[in-house]
Amino acid sequence: MKARTLVGGIVLILGFLMYQTGIAVALEKNPNIFKFIKYMTSPLRINLEADIFVITVGYFGGIIAILGLLICISSLIEKKASLKTRTAEKSENKNLEPEVQNAIEKVLKSS
Fold first, then answer.
1. With 9 labelled, which of 31, 56, 93, 103 sits at a CA distance of 20 to 30 A?
2. CA distance 101 to 57
3. What 8-state DSSP symbol labels residue 29?
4. Positive or negative: CA dihedral 83, 87, 88, 92
5. How many alpha carbons lie under 13 Å from residue 34 in its C-beta half-sphere?
6. CA 57, CA 21: separation in Å to the nearest integer?
7. Do 38 and 50 contact (CB within 8 A), yes or no?
8. DSSP of 52-105
């Protein structure tokens, strides 16, 4: 697995968790949770109300999850494109002499 695919998967999961946390807190409407959010954001001097903070976490979580999904998809598409390029190169090389063709196949196998 490529590192880029792994990073995309981790970003996707983190974004989804942020989104679900925002939605769960918004649906719960527990005053203790809102007090906790105000307590945690007060050192940062963020003057957001708890409702706005929850909505913001939900939206940013969704955006981050979509970015993670796009990173994964682009990594997988890039991998398939490189395989198609190699098979196209092999088919072009079939017209060459057998010695040259064997040398090219050895190089392609080693890379």
1. 56
2. 57
3. -
4. positive
5. 12
6. 8
7. yes
8. HHHHHHHHHHHHHHHHHHHHHHHHHHHHHHHHHHHHHHHHHGGGS-HHHHHHHH
Structure tokens at 31: 């005053």
Q: What is the pTM of this model?
A: 0.59
Residue 92 has pLDDT above 60, yes or no: no
Contact predicate 22/63, CB 8 Å: no
Q: Is the Cβ–Cβ distance between 69 and 26 less than 8 Å?
A: no
Kind plus residue range of the DSSP H or E element containing 25: helix 3-28
- Between the CA of residue 81 and those of 39, 69, 78, 103, 110, what are the distances in Å? 50, 18, 5, 23, 18
Take residue 46 and report the two structure tokens written for it: 């963020």
Rg, the chain, Cα only: 25
